[in-house]
Model the fold of this input.
Amino acid sequence: MGNKQTTFTDEQLEAFQDCTFFTRKEILRLHGRYRELAPHLVPLDYTNNPDIRVPLALIVTMPELKENPFRDRIVETFSEDGDGNQSFNDFVDMFSVLCEASPRELKTIYAFKIYDYNRDNFICKEDLQQTLVKLTKGELSPEEVSLVCEKVMEEADLDGDSKLSFSDFENMISKAPDFLSNFHIRI
Amino acid sequence: MGKNDDCEKQLKAAEEARRKSKNRRAKPQRKTKKTSDDEDDEDEDESPKKRGRKKKKRDSDDDDDDEDRSVKKGSKTRKKKAKDESEEESEEDNKKKKNGRNTGGKGVSKKTKEEQNKDKKGKGKDKDKGKDKGKGKGGDKKKKGSSSSDSDSDEESMSEGEMEALKEEVEEKKKLIATLRTKPWRMKRRLVHLKEAQEFVEKFEGALGKGKGRKWYAYKVMMTKKLIKFKRDFENFKTACIPWERKIKEVESHFGSSVASYFIFLRWMYGLNLVLFGFMFGLVILPEILMGLPYGSIARKTVPRPEQDTAMDFSVLFDFNGYCKYSFLFYGYYNNDRMIGVLKFRLPLSYLLVGVGIFGYSLMVVVRTMARNSNEGGEGAEEGEFTFSWKMFTSWDYLIGNPETADNKYASITTSFKESIVDEQENQKDENIHLRRFLRVLANFMILCSLGGSGFLIYYVVKRSQEFAEMENDELSWFEKNEVEFVMSLLGLVCPPLFETIAELEDYHPRIALKWQLGRIFALFLGNLYTFLFALFDEVTAKLEKEKIIKNSTIWALNEYYANYSSFHNTTDIPPPNIHPADVVRGPCWETGVGIEFVKLIVSDMQVTYLTILIGDFVRAVIVRFLNYCWCWDLEAGFPSYGEFDISGNVLGLVFNQGMIWMGAFYAPGLVGLNVLRLLTSMYYQCWAVMSCNVPHERVFKASRSNNFYMGLLLLVLFLSLLPVVYTIMTLPPSFDCGPFSGQEKMYDVVMETIENDLPAFIGNIFTYATNPGLIMPAVLLMILALYYLNTTSKGYQQANNDLKRKMQMARDEEKNRRNNKDSTNQVMKDLEALLPNRSLAPPPEEEEEPPPEVVVDKGSKSPKTKPKKKAEKGEKEVDLQKEVSLAAQNPKSPVTRAPGSRGAPTANPKGPQPGKERSRGGASK
Done:
């Protein structure tokens, strides 16, 4: 914003504020960050909603995501095409869900999606294994991994179909004490 | 429906005709409303109902209504609704679906319509809407004009109903706009919806706002719009005002959320102190400076003659003597004029109210923050119900953005998984329990000794300082003058590490050890603070004695002066004695003394904290970093290493610092300002220190609910610091020659005075009645009763909660069992099952076992959590035993696999083993 060039029109900013948990300043900052990723690709002027996507490989280099073991999944989940190519809308959406103000229900939905590696709307054992391997950098032995996965299933799987449906996941997450404080990225 | 058949046909015909001619969209839209079915009868089903409703509504209005018209109306309202709904369905594919369905369901007559629909679909939505509306209205009017005489009134009522529906719709849209951000949709879809909803609202709000009698509505709408806009701007402004967001984020990404939580707490504290400072400064300090008497006009605002030579020396000022002591920083400076300045500001009253109000405000803020924090959920599950799931899904801290921290986090997560696995495998290690017990008792004994020792030391030092105070100032060294503060800071510095060393003896789990450590440090600080206070009280009583003597002698001297004057000059018109304010004999002014003690304490605490950081962290880091090139062993990895950020110690320090502020603020109004400065520098200094010379924790503690933990500590400290202040306000007599309350019997007499003199008499009466013990006793009784009642109800809720939980558990187990039974239909499993001893699969014993916990629950609601667990453990053992007997533990891992089922669900035990077996075998084969 400012004298030199407008990035967004006022209506656009208002619309973004209506659709996300961000303030005007934060949206502009987000745009700055977005543009930083690919300066040659992303224009400064966004008033006419250009259809531009930044590939996953660039997005995961952000310091906020760089160390996250689930970075690829996060970016994929929030990209519209599912391959991690994010438009600015997706980008804002991602950080809006992950910001502090967003409610537990919303976060739960997206957390479920993130942990659902094969996108079948269930977290099955393979998903769990993948999560665990990512989380421990493969430090656990295969027996330990399968043991832990079984445990998780036993604990959280309410209907006994040996995969976690969303309701199972929600039930488990809603009681977790540090979900909200940990599933949160400050931008 | 039967008796309405006739009219229904009519209706339908009319409806169709109308629809065809006027509203092409109505049909498909109505279809969407009931997505399940698209039979025609359904349509008919619905229409009479609606019509009926409509009719009833306007029974009084149009008794001579003919069938035709009522139909119109029915269909019209419906159409309206349908249309509205259509607007909600925005997506293209949805529309297509509708159309498709339409083709299937409807007859030939509808095909034409459908075509028209398709035509329309191409056009913009808005246009569509406008057309709909316009047509609807136009049609309305036409019909009415033709049909009946009471058209005018009818139009009124009609548009009224329409209005209602529209209003509802608009409200709905608004709600959608408000909650859009919480919808799990893609951004694009959200934006589209937002736009549509906004347009809709815009359009129809305008329509609703037109006409007479609706101005109010229009006005209201406008105001809400403005309000929303204002709120958003205010929100933007507010977030722009929150300081150090970037700084904290930086720390957060390096050290995880737990370290950052300290800084957030520090920031919160800063905000609180800023508000307190605002009160203090605006209502006490500023009025006294602006409107009160200037410095040097009266004795209490003047440095006494003997001190004047050294009053400007730095060493004196640094001890808060000299000019500092007789400045607005301390209680003694304030005058006891009831009103000052042109505003007739009642300073003494304001002083008292601000002093008490600070506590009130802090209490309110702390409690509110606690309530908000606790609302964030995360409660309700029993410990251990979801150990592994939580570790799996919630242990990664998404804030971490630093490779080193990330590595630590990975390591700690792996360790915690391994720990849990081990925990599962062997719940109870059988060690030398006696030795451990002995060690623990010993450790506690040692810690108690050191606590007592530190308390005694402080008491001794404070006593000694009183002796020093008697002596001449010049004879004392710097150390002797600041002994108290020095010793207190030193104790705060030495004891925590000592406790930590002693705690090694105990060999607790780190988490429990941390709790013990916190509790002990808390006890230490608290003990020190209270010893200090008691010693201070001794001093105060001594000063009060001294003051009494001085007061008597002053009065005596004054009387003497008057007597002499009158006898000498032989007149009754005596001018006040002409003594320079600096020469007036004055009392010790214990309030200022207490204030100075607190300020000195705070300052020395600050010095020690900053020095500790400088030496303990910075110098250490520098040495480790640069000496590492020429040292025998690896300094960075080996012994000294870099410092870690001590969260618990820092938080406790902050909390106690705040406690001292609360206590001292009454006697030293400038203290709050000082504290604001301290917190400000502390923020920058500690941020710098933590970023430049600390390393992330090896064990990253979780910050869960720690916020409320800090707040709880703060609340406790607040309460504890409230006690002495209120005690002094209510019981001790204020000094006779300094401070705003001089001349009063007790400090709170200012309030009484105000009530008597400035407020109408009846308020005074009410107050007298209210303070009557006869009224207070019942009030207290009532409160106790209310407390009891609330407690009982909460217990009831808790019980209901537990019952529900158990029910859920049971349902879950049942489900599982059912499935498992289905699974195990093969013959081998059945045979195996038959081979198992009775104990494991027969439900009866289980049922017998069920009642006891319930009884326990009924009896005492404290135990339900522990009892079932015990039972679970018992069950687990049972199963293990049984398993060993029956299956001889094919593989060492299998008991583990089985345990949680039994642990989580006592009821699942009997049938649990079977699937477990299956699974464990699978695991083994892998």
User: Anything to note?
Assistant: Chain B is about 75% helix and 0% strand. Chain B touches chain A through 74 residues (CB under 8 Å). The radius of gyration of chain B is 40 Å. Residues 1-7, 17-156, 839-926 of chain B have pLDDT under 50 and may be disordered.
